[in-house]
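Teaching assistant's notes for section 4

Start the section by putting this record on the projector. Ask students to predict, before seeing the second block, whether Phosphonate C-P lyase system protein PhnG will look compact or extended. Collect guesses on the board.
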Amino acid sequence: MTSLHDHCTSQARRQRVLALTPRETLETHWAALGIRAPHRCVRGPETGMAMLRGRMGGTGSAFHLGEMTLTRASVALDDGTPGGGALGHGWVRGRDRRHAELIALVDACARHAAWARRIDLDLIAPLQKALEARHAEASHEAAATRVDFFTLVRGE
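Reveal the predicted structure now:
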């Protein structure tokens, strides 16, 4: 039995991976999974702005950094259950309406016990590995351009 904390952690991880994965890659992997889930949009997809906050030095006083375009969507699965089935939500930076809707669909399907494990193992895990590999490559490229500065103390 999973706790509420474990569920929230896995849902947050899933949302992060789906939002950071390019839409074309996500569509390819989702199609390969073969889950066919009729659904309807409950809200959106709609595009708006979100205020970004920062902190001085990462821990200091908060300040408004700026705004970011954000697209969100909510879908309900048409699985015949009373109330319209599982509800899923998706958010993505930018204006990609299809990406937000696809994230919401995956989220809704992941709320079904029959599909949750398969989605986490066969969809999210490979996408997360690909994201980690891209991050490691970008870190490696950045490290190659790193310059170490040091101070010379001259004697009088």
